[in-house]
Amino acid sequence: MAEHCLEQYRSRSAALAGAVPPVDRAGLAGFLAALLRDVAGPGRARVLAYPELQVEAARRPWPAALPAPIGASDFAAHGHLLGAAGLPGGPGRARALTLALHGSIPHLLAGAPNPLAAAGLDDLEGFTRGLLDSICPDEQEAP
Predict the structure, then answer these.
(1) Radius of gyration of the CA atoms of the chain, in A
(2) pLDDT per residue as tens digits for the range 72-114
(3) Where are the alpha helices (DSSP H) in 60-112?
(4) 24 Ramachandran zone, left/alpha/beta (phi>0; psi -120 to 50)
(5) Burial state string for 28-64 with b = 16 or more CB within 10 A and e = fewer than 16
């Protein structure tokens, strides 16, 4: 099952890599919102397997290496997306974006309305715009 999950992830990542990257902040926010909508909707069954795999990896050593490529790939992909959208990148911003998106996944999978609203995940476009504003503030807003 773990290897199947990793193969599905690689297939999905390859499809996304072939897509035209967003060229500005608004495009990137929309792209990220679409990814999160997929987590909560059509991709839910596929994505549910990833947290289960991570928990299993914490219990048993043999699957521990399998989730590692997912995180590493996401850090690189999000860094690339920031740059393609004309936003400041770098490893710190890519990590912050990746970890915030990954952190939203359990809430989206559970789908409970009150926690979604409390996290801002009831408005995915607003959530991703706010996330990008926090990670890459406009130069006029930067201290």
Answers:
(1) 15
(2) 788 888 998 999 999 998 999 999 999 999 999 999 999 898 9
(3) 68-84, 91-110
(4) beta
(5) bbbbbbeebeebbeebeebbebbeebbebbeeeeebe
